[in-house]
Every structure is written in C-alpha cells, then in structure tokens.
Amino acid sequence: MPASYLPTADTTPTRKSDRVSYDRAAVHAAIDEAVMCHLGFVVEGRPVVLPQLHARVGEHLYVHASSAARLMRSTREGIAVCVTISHIDGLVLARSAFNHSLNYRSVIVHGLAELVTDAEEKRKVLAAFVDAVLPGRADHMRGVNRKELGATAVLRIPLENVSLKSRSAPPGDDEEDLALPYWAGVIPLTNSVPGTPEPAPDLDPSMAVPAHVARWSRETRAS
Amino acid sequence: MPASYLPTADTTPTRKSDRVSYDRAAVHAAIDEAVMCHLGFVVEGRPVVLPQLHARVGEHLYVHASSAARLMRSTREGIAVCVTISHIDGLVLARSAFNHSLNYRSVIVHGLAELVTDAEEKRKVLAAFVDAVLPGRADHMRGVNRKELGATAVLRIPLENVSLKSRSAPPGDDEEDLALPYWAGVIPLTNSVPGTPEPAPDLDPSMAVPAHVARWSRETRAS
User: Does domain B17-217 have CATH number 3.30.420.40?
Assistant: First the structure.
C-alpha cells in the first residue's frame, strides 16, 4: 500500500498548499485520536452537519449515524458525504491581529457513504467503535444482541478521497511588526482531558474503578 | 427578546426530542465556549465541511471563512449553510455495549450566509473574533490595516433557525443489565486545556508572559 493518498480534485488546495498532506500514517493518526467527527450531507439541496462517533478499520471510515434518521432514509443507495475530523492544538498569538492563527490538524474525507447491512461486518464495526473510544472496554460489558444490532445504523466510507490540513508552527509575523512590544507565541491546547470517573448512581458502591477506566486518555487510542 | 428560539422544520427532532433545547442563553453559552465551529455548505450538489473560527455578536453568528475560497466565490448572493458547534463533555460507560453514549452539547445553526462587505462591520467582527478566542488580547497587538481588512472574508448568519442538542446524564442501562458485574459511570472530559505558553523564537527573551496569556482558559470567554 502506498505511503500517501493520491490527491484528487476535492483534496487539491486552492491556497496555502504547504498545509496539506496526503500521508497515510498522519491521516490515520488524526482520525484515530478524535473522539468524534462532523458528518456533512445534503438534504433537499441544503447542507446538514452532525457530530457523530466514528471508527477507522483499515482503509474504511465507519460513522455511527443512528441519530441521522433523515439521512438514513435516503442512504440505502449511498449518498455523498463529507466527514471532517478536527483537532485544535494551539492558539497562535502574533504581533498583528491579522497574523493570529490556530495550530490544528483537520482530516477531510469525501466519499459515497453506504449503510452497513451485513450483520457480521456490523458486529465487527460496533466492537471497533467501543475499542476506538474506550480501549479495553470490550471485556467489561455485555455485548450487543440481535435486536440492538438491528437498531443501530452504521455508515461505511472508503478512505480514498482524503487529505490532512494542518498548521504547527510559531506565529508568522510580518518583518515590520517584529519589533512591536507585544508578546507573541503559542498557547498549546490539549483536548479530551479526563477528570475523576463518576460512578453511576445505581452502581454497587463496593465496585472499584477498573484499570481501563482509570488509565483512560486520548493517547491510549493510538497505541 | 423571547427566552427561547422558535422551533422550525429544521430544528424539530424526529427522535430523542428530550435532548433538544431552544433556550437562548444555553445556545449562546455553547457557541461562546467553543474555539471553532464546523461550517457545512454545498458545492455542485455535494457537501463540504470545514473547521472555522467563529464569533457571536448578539443574534448573529460570524464565521471566519478565508480558507473557504471556493465557497466565497459563490456566496456574494448568500448561500445555504449549516454551522455545527460541538462539545464532548464525557464518555458514558454502560453495562451493555448498546447503551454506551457520550455526554455532549451540540448547537446546529441553519441559515443563509452572507459575506460581510461593510468595512465598519467587518472591523467590529474581526475584533470580536480576537476577543472571542483571546479575551484581553486587543490591547496587546497591532490592529488590522486596510489591506488586511480587504484580505479577510467573513460570513454572517442570523441566529434564528437554531437548536441545542445535549446529553448530560449517567448511563441509562436496561433494567435487566443492572446486576451485571461491570463498572458503569461517566468519564468527564475537559477540552482546550492550556499548557505552558511557548514564546515565539524571535521574541525578545526579556519579555514576560502577559496576564491575558497566562490566565487563558476557556472559562474566560463566557465571563
């Protein structure tokens, strides 16, 4: 498998082309690190964007779309979607207002989404959703039964028409602004920082917080 | 001004209606807390979703869309957009795979976006962008000049067709699963947690980190 995706008409930038990458490993890492994606589709000529869970299995992106009921009604034949997965990694403070920026990574996937109908594939994908968000959880829950499997809708999108846009740098001030008496630099940001786990009110109080919950962090997903 | 937005065909849910709110203050708070939004629009019948900066000024949402070059070419007459602003507040761990969930808040704004062309409005909006992300920064930077103003594209969307979807609760397990020997509860998540500010390599090393940088947190935006 080639190390990079092939650029397409959709993923060739019209500006700031130095910020675009097609590197497969970098795209995968940005997808895998995110807890959610934003799924865009068109309904009666107008755009709809919904936050959704996702999981990557090899070169397919799966999106948990139970809540996208109006999408599902029309999708059995496949519909055009755009899935965008974004991380804000830092606030970039420049001497000038104009050169303020963000450090970020954003994967954009264009494709035809199909509904997963095969029970075996669906079962594997649901396991991948759990493992993507909560590594190690599979051994600490009741698996999905046939009725629940039927009640869950999952979309499959091939990772082909895909790119990663990113910025990761100090501020880029204009030469003539460098001597201005303003602090410039980056405030790095971390997302999905876990707090103390909150046991369910109906949980047996003698039950300790298990390791897969106590150690949860976004880093565990990529490992 | 009424305390709630009016439900519309777009914002009336087809399922899980208990999760939808039209409360103006709650919508504003979720918009103001976010560092970025996801802007969806339609190009030649297909969806495009881009991460963008935004700022709310009263009942208008402004979106910084310089990078959406292909959108701007067609938007001078106003184009249909969907702007979605999402927060993941926690991972919800249930006894069953099926009842795993997320605690989240997601504002969805449908509307016709117009390009801001009035120089005075644009100048105010650019100040609002800076203030939205970096409260107090305005006194620590060079303001925008006429050339920079011309090079910046801003969209305006009225806050009318808008709703907030949210979940904020412990897991909702099925009665028959409650006795299973699995830990259930919530892992709360915090986003945009600042690290130690990183001075620009070309910054005078004697310059101390100013208070508006040192104290930055997402909470400061709402206050």
Answer: no
